Amino acid sequence: MTVAASEPTTIRKRQVFAWSLWDWGAAAYNAVIVSFVFSPYVVRGVVGDEKPGGLSGNTWLGISSATAGLLIALIAPVTGQRSDASGHRKRNLAIWTGLTVAVMLGLFSVRNEPAYLWIALVLLAAGAVFNEFAGVSYNAMLQQVSTPATIGRISGFGWSMGYFGGIFLLLTCYVGFIAPEVGWFGATADGGLKYRMVAVFSAAWFALFALPVLIAVPEKPPGPKQRRVGFFASYKVLARDIRELWRVERNALTFLIASALYRDGLTGVFTFGAILAVTVYGMAQDTVLIFGVVANVVAAVGAITLGRIEDFVGPKRIIMISLVGLVTTALILLFAHGVTMFWIFGLILCLWVGPAQASSRSFLARMAPVGREGQMFGLYAMTGRAASFLAPGLFALFSGLFSDRAGIIGIALVLIAGGVVLWFVKPPPAHQPKLA
């Protein structure tokens, strides 16, 4: 193992901003399609009280997500390795982003009738896969727009742009399509048109803000010829690389395990937060969207602030501080009552989510061997999906055995487990290793 001979010592603000705009645009899929608008429309508007195949809309959506997760776990590391080897990282980002946008446009065909559920499930599963693959290439570009001294603040800035982009787009869609009786372009509730128009508008949003990174950030040169192999041969290369990482960079694999655990806990915070707000703390249904907007603002502020501090203290300390803050706040919420207490401690909880996510990305970028960034972020996606059942499973276990409120214990346990494993991970070096 040798250290890279030379690394960039300066950054171009134009490239950083162009790179971060992809995060801003990607909120169109993550916040609008998955979290707050289209997936709820599929469950409530398309399926309603029907039970196709004897299963509820929520169950079918879970099956769709699980299928997508399995495909991501099987393929993401190979797509990352191939983009590193071929020198087509930016081209792959364009392809996967374009396919995600195409899926979002296809969602316009999903009318509010149960027969359209199957189209919705296939499109949402495909969108999840394409968007995750795009994220692998995008995250791998973090090293191209940063230096070892600025990687933390740039990762935090990009993550905060994603939060702010989601906030702005959610409010725009609410004012333009959801709230009015007749929204922009004549969108009404008939046939679920207002929600279908949100999907089209969001697709255009993502496409527009994905363009700058493709223009401003140069392509990486291809890797060694021996790594440029066919698709199935890439799995042999992947297996060899994992053995090599276990031998010379075991620390990186330990981090992947730790991050898979606590990132699943972070996902659980957002997944079940809105449910608990309504069912346990008495928040009105129409207030949840407002809470979601404010929560994203708080998470973005946390990512920006602690991202700057990270460049001085390192990503591990930021993640550990965030995990302690998350677990402590979650346990306070376990005994809290009422809407006001949820507003206070729910937002404090979100304050720690942004830094934990942003510093995890920069942690891996600092640790990834030069020329293997895409592959490492592919493994990052794979391990995250491999552990994605833990927080939902433990939440269901504790809420089923005791009460909905007790489900918080399940999420806290996953966060604690991730923190314990992370404790044994050495902080990443200032310079990335370079493997053959």
UniProtKB/TrEMBL annotation:
Origin: domain of life: Bacteria
Keyword vocabulary terms for this entry: Membrane, Transmembrane, Transmembrane helix, Transport
Transmembrane segments: 21-39, 59-80, 92-110, 116-136, 157-177, 197-217, 253-281, 287-306, 318-336, 376-400, 406-425
Membrane-topology annotation of the record: Multi-pass membrane protein
Subcellular location: Cell membrane
Every Major facilitator superfamily (MFS) profile domain range: 252-436
InterPro entries, per the entry: Atg22-like (IPR024671), ATG22/LtaA_families (IPR050495), MFS_dom (IPR020846), MFS_trans_sf (IPR036259)
PROSITE patterns: MFS
This protein's name: MFS transporter
UniProt source species: Microlunatus ginsengisoli
